[in-house]
Amino acid sequence: MVTEPELISIIEGPTPEFQPTPQRWLQSIHEGPDDRAIAMCRLRTMSGEDIMERCYRAWDEGRAVKLDYPDEMRMRQRADVVAMRLDEVDEGKMLLLWVSLDYEIEYEEVDDDDFDGEEDDGFDFF
Asked: What does the domain layout of the chain look like in residue ranges?
């Protein structure tokens, strides 16, 4: 049984532009122990139907689908593909991919002196 992920490889071109996605349901598809963000990218393709067929077959077999792409330093990176759609635009076929990306949560330091305990926010929790 093949356990290798199915790859969607970007051979030429710039690093994909990952955009945040407002669809909250996508986050529930790719839940896990790691902090991940779901982002969307658009890729022009000449073989969109073939890519879609390969990915659907991999998902049916229980294999992962990954986007293999060059980062800004031209190093190869991989991201889990959680959803996809093929669209037709004036320039040709466009593959829309929703991928799961690592992200670091930056916590802002909060000074205890900022809370004097005297303000009532109007919420009654108990």
From this structure: 6-103
